[in-house]
């Protein structure tokens, strides 16, 4: 028995060692951002390598909202990200139902075409998308960002939800059809409630991508009142010519990251359910 327990401990030691390394790798940058955000800008050169600030201060968090419309930038990011997610889930739910449950010619080709769109880098579609947005008179508006973000969120949500819809038992759909339900009624009354974990997981991942997007937001906005938070942070400057804005950038980064952490903690059970729902066909 003692030998078995000793062997068991030898097996678990590498596991916990690897887990500790991964946790340190993931959490250390956020810890360092929080630590830097609580350090006065003038103390940064002296305390750059310290683990804790000597004189913690919230001045950097207050300065984030002084001199630039950071509150409006947060609102822009929220509106654009939420609108992108709602449109993506609405369109991709319909597409996933058709691609996952119906048989029609060219379905495989259509799926590969959707996948091919997501493979292209953003910079490759930027010139053409810029011309479209200029032609639609959407430049420097939230509509321009929502339209551009759909390019990379729609393929992702369609593929993810299609894979999930394929795993839903056909008996549910057949029972609804026997009760006289139309295809749309079957989708909204039968399949969507079953798809809730997948919708939450996919929507949250799409929200994070839209919330953090930088290139399109930088290209399709030109004034600070229309920018989203990633671009606004990129344009931060020091309060004086000799002051580096690094501490304020860290404070703004923490402000932007905290909502994402809260969302993940609130929906963690549904996220796990959504990630594992398609593992076994029910």
Descriptive report:
The structure is a single chain. The chain has 2 domains: 59 residues, no CATH class; 166 residues, MetI-like (MetI-like fold, Orthogonal Bundle). The C terminus is likely disordered. The radius of gyration is 24 Å and the shape is globular. With 282 residues, the protein is an all-alpha fold. The longest helix is centred in the N-terminal third of the chain and has 36 residues. 75% of the residues lie in helices and 0% in strands. Helix 1 packs across helix 13, helix 4 packs across helix 10 and helix 5 packs across helix 7.
Structural key phrases:
single chain; 282 residues; mainly alpha; MetI-like fold; 2 domains; 14 helices; 75% helix; globular
Secondary-structure blueprint:
Elements: H1 2-37, H2 44-47, H3 59-64, H4 70-101, H5 107-119, H6 122-135, H7 142-167, H8 170-178, H9 183-194, H10 196-212, H11 215-219, H12 229-234, H13 246-266, H14 268-277
Helix pairs in contact: 1-13, 4-7, 4-10, 5-7, 7-10, 8-9, 10-14
CATH topology-level name of the largest domain: MetI-like fold
| Rg, nearest Å | 24 Å
The stretches of 5 or more residues where confidence is low (pLDDT under 50) are 278-282
The arrangement of helices and strands along the chain is HHHHHHHHHHHHHH
CATH architecture of the largest domain: Orthogonal Bundle
Please, how many helices?
Answer: 14
Shape by Cα distribution: globular
- Could you estimate the helical fraction of the residues in percent? over 70%
Main sheet summary:
none
Mean of residue pLDDT? 81
């Amino acid at each position: 028995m003692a030998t078995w327990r000793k062997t068991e401990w030898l097996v678990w030691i590498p596991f916990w060692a690897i887990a500790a390394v991964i946790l340190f790798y993931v959490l250390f940058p956020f810890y360092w951002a929080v630590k830097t955000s609580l350090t006065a800008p003038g103390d940064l050169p002296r305390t750059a390598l310290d683990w804790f600030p000597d004189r913690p201060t919230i001045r950097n968090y207050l300065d984030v909202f002084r001199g630039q419309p950071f509150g409006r930038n947060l609102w822009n990011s929220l509106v654009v990200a939420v609108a992108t997610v709602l449109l993506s889930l609405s369109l991709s739910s319909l597409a996933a139902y058709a691609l996952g449950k119906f048989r029609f010619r060219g379905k495989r080709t259509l799926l590969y075409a959707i996948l091919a769109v997501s493979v292209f880098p953003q910079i490759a579609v930027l010139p053409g998308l810029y011309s479209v947005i200029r032609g639609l008179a959407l430049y420097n508006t939230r509509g321009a960002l929502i339209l551009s973000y759909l390019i990379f969120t729609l393929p992702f949500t369609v593929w993810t939800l299609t894979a999930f819809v394929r795993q839903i038992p056909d008996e549910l759909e057949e029972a609804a059809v026997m009760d006289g339900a139309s295809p749309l009624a079957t989708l909204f009354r039968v399949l969507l409630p079953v798809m809730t974990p997948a919708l939450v997981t996919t929507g949250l991942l799409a929200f994070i991508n839209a919330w953090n997007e930088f290139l399109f937001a930088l290209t399709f906005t030109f004034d600070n009142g229309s920018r989203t938070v990633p671009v606004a942070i990129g344009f931060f400057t020091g309060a004086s010519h000799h002051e580096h804005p690094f501490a304020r950038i860290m404070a703004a980064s923490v402000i932007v990251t905290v909502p994402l952490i809260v969302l993940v903690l609130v929906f963690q059970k549904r996220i796990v359910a959504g990630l594992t729902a398609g593992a076994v066909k029910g």
